[in-house]
UniProtKB/TrEMBL annotation:
Protein name: Single-stranded DNA-binding protein
Domain of life: Bacteria
GO molecular function: single-stranded DNA binding
Biological processes, Gene Ontology terms: DNA replication
UniProt KW Transferase keyword: no
Organism: Candidatus Kaiserbacteria bacterium RIFCSPHIGHO2_02_FULL_56_30
Quaternary structure and partners: Homotetramer.
Region listing for Disordered, in residue ranges: 106-150
Amino acid sequence: MYLNKVFLFGNLTRDPELRALPSGAQVANFGLATNRVYKDKQGAKQETTEFHNIVAFGRQAEVIGQYCKKGKAIFVEGRLQTRSWEDKGSGQKKYRTEIVVENFQFGDSAGRGSTGPSQASKQKEEQPAPKDEEEIKYPDEEINPEDIPF
């Protein structure tokens, strides 16, 4: 059995570029930056950043193109794919390795990734816990599945 699976959580390095294929399907290309923090031989804290090329197709491309902007955090699950082509100017063969999105989730709305708690979690911490006799109040209106963006 072979496995080609990638999991990344990072921030967009640029706004997604949304285009249409000749078949009419949408494709979104964007960059993703991930950070790694470690200690070097002297014990000093070091941080390195890796940059990844991401491509999404179909409905996922549309949703990413609509809701994601530079700096926004996103979790991407996908597979590695390397494309090759011949450069028209020099005649040299060029290669590009990308992560093809199979699934994704939006990060926090502030686009900070995992660098700090989101505003929602801060608000939860500030609110006192409900007492046992207090009843949880749910909204009266139904949630329409068509309103969910994915």
